[in-house]
Amino acid sequence: MERHAAGAHRQRIHAAIATSEAARSPLVASWKRSSELHRLDPSGRRETVYADEGRLREARQALEPLTRVARPSLERLFLAVGGAGCCVILADRHGVAVERLGSGGDDRHFRDLGLWTGAIWSETEQGTNGIGTCLVERRAVTIHRDQHFFTGNAALSCTAVPLHDHEGRFVAVLDISSCRNDLTEALVQVIALAVAESARRIEIDLFRRAFPDARVMLAPTADGNPAALVAVDGHDLVIGASRAARKALDIGGGPIAGRLSARDLFGGADRGPESLVAAERSVYRRALARHAGNVTAAARELGVSRATLHRKLNQLRLRAND
Known about the structure:
The chain has 12 helices and 9 strands.
């Protein structure tokens, strides 16, 4: 960017920061963080900071389970947008680019801009940008051209979305960046939809991989989000919930195995309270069903004697094979 244009960019950012706009605009709030918290100067471009070999190796190892599951989705995403002069980046929660997919013909230009494996795209290092601002705000963001803090990054258009693991924890950022000067706002919107859909697919695959033997149920959401998933074990106890499901069903963070029943969470047919007798019958019926009516095997699973289980079955008027 020419010197006078760089000066105009700097003035525009500082003028916006000086007003009350930072309280209303997430973009200006990011500019304010970049200027006042991180002490960056928008007129120019800081040299790209790269993670050293050890830090990059640790970042890759930490994200290896996610990367392994996400690889097919990353490749499909690149096939969809690579021809439009875009690269796909997967960054960890510190802004380190651990994976990158790009066209060989664009590599030199992207590398000059710092869109390369190992580059650190936190707001601390690069000011307002797709990956860094997504990390701070924990939401999907698009930073288009001169919305970037540094004038040297104004050629970029970046759309980034957060990725969450099977327990709803924010673990990574999926980003599409382009440096084409003919990128229209309409195409930017299409790219934003593509990256959001890929992120959703990755979260679904991560969740199903984490609970391979569970019954996976779709939680009701206003928008029919297919990533709002709940895992239920053979006892009808909830053993996992995705971030979208936790939000829809008002489930707190952290492990939830054994704290909730599927009936309590979703409601039964009559959505009324389940009686203790009915709950007890359900436990014994499921245990018998899993062992084809074999009382000895069912008693072993339930941790009671065969005689005790026979007595309970008689009380509850349940039948078994032995």
